[in-house]
Write a structure and sequence with these properties.
The strands form 3 sheets. The chain has a 4-stranded antiparallel β-sheet with strand order 1-2-3-6. Strands 7-8-9 form a 3-stranded antiparallel β-sheet, with no helix packed on it. The chain folds into 2 domains: 115 residues, no CATH class; 29 residues, no CATH class. Helices cover 13% and strands 33% of the residues. By secondary structure, the protein is mainly β. Strand 4 and strand 5 form a beta hairpin.
Length: 150
């Protein structure tokens, strides 16, 4: 049984920057419910949290059945990211449930795109000449020509 619940599945630019003709990557947000690894008595984790090595700290949860239990964590991965046991190998972003809840989608989008981009420079502009030559201009001043549009 998985400790994750899928929150959403979206497409992001595969290399972190959107431009005409870029490839898109399926990205999945996996939520970890608050009761997973909780130190709160009676939830089966009295011997310790087996997920502490790869998830943000476990949270205490309310015994009030009517209270909404917050997420412990949100793990954002590429589709088909490998897992060993319950641990995703090389997740794009790992957030506590509180961080995820407080973050705007714009900020989350930037974090995910930064992770997809890796150490490559940020795309600043895309130019298309009258003869259809396309060029990508990056923040470090480098340029990459693309195929003609027609």
């Amino acid at each position: 049984m998985s400790i994750y619940a899928t929150l959403w599945i979206l497409k992001f630019p595969a290399l972190g920057d959107s431009y005409f003709g870029c490839e898109w990557e399926t990205v999945i947000a996996q939520g970890v419910p608050g009761h997973i690894g909780t130190p709160t008595e009676g939830h089966g984790y009295e011997a310790g949290d087996p997920y502490s090595s790869f998830l943000p700290p476990a949270i205490a949860i309310s015994d009030d059945d009517d209270a909404a239990t917050p997420l412990r964590a949100v793990v954002i991965v590429r589709e088909r990211t490998e897992k060993i046991g319950q641990e995703y190998i090389g997740p794009l972003v790992v957030l506590s449930g509180a961080e995820y809840a407080a973050m705007s989608f714009d900020a989350l989008h930037d974090r995910i795109c930064d992770a997809l981009r890796g150490h490559r420079p940020h795309l600043m502009a895309e130019t298309i000449s009258p003869d259809g030559e396309t060029e990508l201009i990056f923040e470090d001043g480098t340029a990459k020509p693309l195929l003609r549009l027609h």
